Amino acid sequence: MKQIFFVISLVVCSVLSAQVKIENKQVSSRTKFGEQRLNATITQLKLNTVKHSIVLSKQPTGKKEGFTIETKNNRTTIIGNDESGILYGCLAFADELKKTKKFPGTYSFSDAPEMVLRGACIGVQKPYYLPGRTVYEYPYTPETFPWFYDKKLWIQYLDSMVANRMNSLYLWNGHPFASLVKLKDYPYAVEVDDATFKKNEEIYRFLTTEADKRGIWVIQMFYNIIVSKPFAEHHKIKTQERERPIIPLISDYTRKSIAAFVEKYPNVGLMVCLGEAMEGVGKDDIEWFTQTIIPGVKDGLKALNKTEEPPIVLRAHDTDAPAVMRASLPLYKNLYTEAKFNGEALTYARPRGSWAELHQTLSRLGSVQIENVHILANLEPFRYGSPDFIQQSVIGMHEVMGGNGLHLYPQASYWDWPYSADSVKGKRLLQIERDWIWYSAWSRYAWKAKRNREEEIVYWSKQLASKFGCSEADGRRILTAYEESGEIAPKLLRRFGITDGNRQTLTLGMLMTQLINPFRYGLFTLLYDAEAPEGEMILDYADKQQKGIKHIGETPPQVAKEVVVHGNNAVTSIMEVSRRITKNKEEFNRIVNDMYCYKAMADHFSSKVQAAVQLLKYKYSGNIADLELAVPMLEKSVNDYKELAALTADTYLYANSMQTQQRKIPMRGSNATFKHWTEMVPVFETELKTFKYKIDSLKNRSNVKAQERKSLQQVDVKLNHVPVVLNEGAVLFSDTSFRIKQLAPELKGLKAVELSFSRQLRQPTEINFYTDKPVKILVGYFKTQRAAFTTDTVFAKAPELETNASADDYGQAEIKISNAIAIEGMPPVNIHSYSFKAGSHTLKLPKGVCLVLGFVDGTQIIPVYDAMLMGDAKNRNIDWLFE
Ligand code: ADA
């Protein structure tokens, strides 16, 4: 067996500090780094090195990154299975020395990681869009990302990664190439000035070199298809356009960008998102990946005369990843897949249903499946550090999903890297410092998932004791606070939420109509079907209660009760130790405040959910007393919320780091509005007031329900299509006889556009029109059951921010009128509206059947409500009680 030896002789200086010489000059920078780290520990511990020698060697066998340490006769041998193994062996031996404070007499230890890729990511992105640009478009510049050029910060970050044995760092950006490479054929595509370009080259080289030393692959992520702004302007095209077919010019530009990038940075991997800027789940994805991206990488390798393939990670986001992989594996070997573990949240350790099946399918392809803990939309911004929940999740990743890699997002404030949302006088806190426990817990379990719970409690208690200068018993109490609070946000979102996506900020609370009529807000059903244990939504629970049907699994009242207990336990545990803290007191106090925030949030949700369950009885009983009983519960929830607002008023800058119009729940958050609890207090107060007022009006028998609904005002636009006047009996398709049975009053008399059913099945719908004033186009999407990914394209997919961040570019993401049309033999229809300015435009809709129901004046407000046509009987609408 081939063994390569590097002898490290420890030469003693008079003060017993060790000095290391490497005799083999060929030794890699990674080995050198390991040896330096070990040597630094020996020096720091002032160990007597006279008689002890250490030999590092490589034996290319066994598991990747594994190592063995043997000590006998005053000699320690560290054998790595590869360069990373040597590095990790050195670090493990240094840890051992730190524990015992002397060289061991005899010692033997072997280890290797379970997950092959253990990565963290950083968004080279912002909470807002840059002027004149759209989602994900952020050139690398010092003005936008000062931290990107801060070498000290990079070293701190990379050091923390290697301490956690992480081996991959993902940089997320829409189109990074035009900041990093220049192309002979497209010199005008570069989007940064020369000085910045040089800085980018320098910092990118620095980062990749420093990462490599620490055993870390840098992997550059990019979305498709996005071109640079100057390239787009030059060719008079858009930078990104979901409905645009692949065109040779863009393919050539992208292929050359990738080739140039691979040639320049051969040690950087690529992570590919075949979306959101291309039609998801279609043939284009396969063509783009196999005919543009992979050839681009191969061109780069050819230019280098290299055959070793850099890793390419394919995201299973907005694409049919299994199909893309099957087509690509014959062409490229070093492929990985990646998919979101719990959407953009943390909810449940053992996902179920079609989402779990997708992961399992990917895992069975034979390549490595990486589990992505994506943006933590339900954890932002409070501290989260439940080792227990995290350990269970990693076990679930292996056992349920078949995953063998971790891709970890920052715990909070992803869009605001490197800072956390804490408001601290005079400075911003760094995420890597504040959220150390988040990173160390995930990486610990990514290295090895199944560890004895009792031993884990001791391990984390010691870590916390040393962090805050307290006894191990008090460390245990802090751990309890973390673990109790760590149950709250996952349980709340999975039982009451609208979506697992960052469209919702859980910690800001939810409107009552969102709790009692989630469908109206575009319920993302996978949250309940896959990312939660079996259980019931509030609506189902109330219905079963009325009908005396047996409840199954986790119920709303159960969670409402449990979260309160978790909140109380967290606060009690943390307060027990508060006077005995001797280190990092300020940070400790911030943890205390966070525990109170969790408690207030849990109390608020709990009372509000109880109110919801109570007032839903009214649907069945029509008894005003059922509403009145809910009032004190709702009052309590508002008071709890005020407590939360008071706790956060001076301690947090915001709840959610994404501050664009993509945020919808609880309130639309465009231009950084509704990002703080203090802004939500009046909303919840008004909600309560309205509810009380409606109860009073009901009692006085005034007609509160009958809000008069009028038709919307039709606007005539120029277009080349046959109009269909909307009414009962109207036929909307030229080639079928489906007739409208019922429709919402707003739609009556509007001129819809006659479309061909069979044509929509084959291709996307495009409607060219001219308007001399702003218009809103009403588009009807059929309600269908959503699976994890689907190749069933009968019905067009409604705009969905979870998989397409530009799904709101025309204001179309939100459902305006739900269940607005009933057509015999077809699912109910939800209405979305697309806004256009005066001028000539093309309305582009995805492939699949949908309806274009009319053009209305752009200034008209389209009511947001549920028309309940073809709705289930249990869904009698009582939203009007709150609005
Ligand atoms: C959604 C989300 C984005 C981003 C994206 C992705 O569109 O709204 O913020 O996270 O998913 O890339 O997964």
Task: Write a compact overview of the structure shown.
With 883 residues, the chain is of the alpha/beta class. It contains 24 helices and 25 strands.
Supply the key terms.
alpha/beta, 4 domains, 24 helices, Chitobiase, domain 2, six-stranded mixed beta sheet, 883 residues, 25 strands
Annotate the secondary structure layout.
Layout: E1 4-12, E2 18-22, H1 29-45, E3 53-58, E4 67-72, E5 75-80, H2 83-100, E6 107-111, E7 117-123, H3 151-163, E8 168-172, H4 177-180, H5 194-213, E9 217-224, H6 229-235, H7 248-264, E10 268-276, H8 283-304, E11 312-315, H9 321-328, E12 335-340, H10 353-364, E13 368-373, H11 387-399, E14 405-408, H12 431-434, H13 436-447, H14 453-468, H15 472-496, H16 512-516, H17 526-529, H18 538-547, H19 556-577, H20 585-621, H21 624-628, H22 631-649, H23 677-699, E15 718-719, E16 723-725, E17 740-743, E18 751-753, H24 757-762, E19 765-771, E20 775-782, E21 817-823, E22 829-836, E23 839-845, E24 850-857, E25 865-866
This protein binds alpha-D-galactopyranuronic acid.
